[in-house]
Amino acid sequence: MTASSDLLSRLAERLGEKHVLTAPTDIAPHLVEWRGLFRGSALAVVRPADTDEVAFVVAACAEAGIAIVAQGGNTGLVGGGVPWGGIVLSLGRLSRIRAVDPLSATITVEAGALLAEVQAAADAQGMLFPLSLPSEGSCTIGGNLATNAGGTGVLAYGNMRDLVLGLEVVLADGRVWNGLSALRKDNAGYDLKHLFVGSEGTLGIITASVLKLYPKPSSRAVGFVGLSSPRTALALFEALRRAAGHDLTAFEYIPRYGLDIVLRHRPALPRPLTGDHAAYALVEMSTTRPGADALGDLEVALAAAIENGFVEDAVICASEAQNLNLWSLRENLSDVQSLEGGSIKHDVSVPLARIADFLDAAIAACEAEMPGLRVCAFGHFGDGNIHFNLSQPVGMEKAAFLKQWGRFNRIVHDIVHGMGGSIAAEHGIGLIKRDELVRYGDPVGLDLMRRLKAALDPHDLLNPGKIVASSPNPPPALPRE
Q: Which segments constitute the FAD-binding PCMH-type domain (predicted)?
């Protein structure tokens, strides 16, 4: 009996045969991520029911020398969850909401819980879990933590690193670190949880977490604003932040091309403004203060911005249904890009003061490189995160366009790096940016990453080949159509 067949027999005996999937049709959905840019391979998909079973699987794989890739909702965007042989450890059965504590403003959940389920559990207790993503109905908390997910609420609440208090993690040798603390103050040594948040399953497998909750807003207002340029968008953001402070809970930038393709492919959504503008912003103010009026505050702030020349036109919603319609324009933007053909994507961040400079420089450089290229640069303006995506020229073959990924990486990432930014804002490194990290990362920082990997996973069995590659033949970093 081979090592792999012996391992599968051991796993089936402990987990049950129905939770050790080996049929190609059962494995296939776990071999490719949402965008379909990478396709891997695996011996099996295993589905443990609890932390003890996860620990058993990891220990057994360590003993057999077989790699493990943990998966949640498999909604990643950088190839980080694609296996290259070994075992896929699906955390979907670890889905319990263990506890909700409104007084401490915490919720304790298992890694396989859907983000939408955690939001709903908090809401049922009159609280808010503020992480919000278009994939919240399918992504899981473990994946959100492993990638340090951001989304539209980072401006007010921070990303997942800011929302976690404690973790439970299975280490590479099968031991369980119980760091499920709800303490807001704890200086007893190193803050170990931050090693695992954003590590993409390369240092340990997160099985549960204690997360922060917030009071639900009592009043919320959403507006859609027409602007002349990214520079006026930046001026508007600064004016709204001065006027609203922490009550400015979202500021999403959308270019004209982005709105055009959403309305083209989602005709049921209403056009928010009658005229066309070079750029748009979706802004949200919300407050928990009793008697406060977010709608009135937004009206006053936008009226002042119009008077000061920052804004060409604006509309403010009068109902929650209208709020949702406006948010749908932003939430559909990622999906509709695929309907325009191939899309080369860059999830980057630059210092807030350089956003307009970055957009001007990167758009000009990319359009000069390929005539007919359509730039869809949008994102979370308030935290410096831009999804700088490039749609293929009309009539160009998709496969031929996607072969230019490396070429455009160099253009965009050089500009980002030159402005003191990051080539990976919220989607992570995974495969697609692994080699880019080597090119642009600080050498000392990269050395520390490799040392951490070697210390916590000395045999390179946890999601090998991702973030920092230590094997001599790592999986390919650029997508292949």
A: 38-216
pTM summary value:
0.92
User: Residue 239's domain spans which residues?
Assistant: 219-334
CATH number at residue 355: 3.30.70.2740
| Closest among 258, 278, 276 to 331, alpha carbons compared | 258
- Asked if 101 contacts 182 with a C-beta cutoff of 8 angstroms, the reply is yes
Report in angstroms the alpha-carbon separations of 116 from 113, 158, 328, 359, 410.
8, 18, 16, 33, 37
Task: Indicate whether 89 belongs to any domain.
Answer: no
Claim to verify: residue 153 and residue 226 sit in the same structural domain: no
DSSP string, 358-399: HHHHHHHHHHHHSTT-EEEEEEEGGGTEEEEEEEPPTT--HH
Does the residue 10 lie in any domain? no
Task: Measure Cα distances from 98 to 33, 199, 211 in Å.
Answer: 29, 24, 11
Cβ-contact 301, 281 below 8 angstroms = no
State the total domains in the chain.
3
Could you read off the pLDDT of 396-427 as tens digits, one per residue?
999 999 999 999 999 999 999 999 999 999 88
Domain assignment present for 443: no
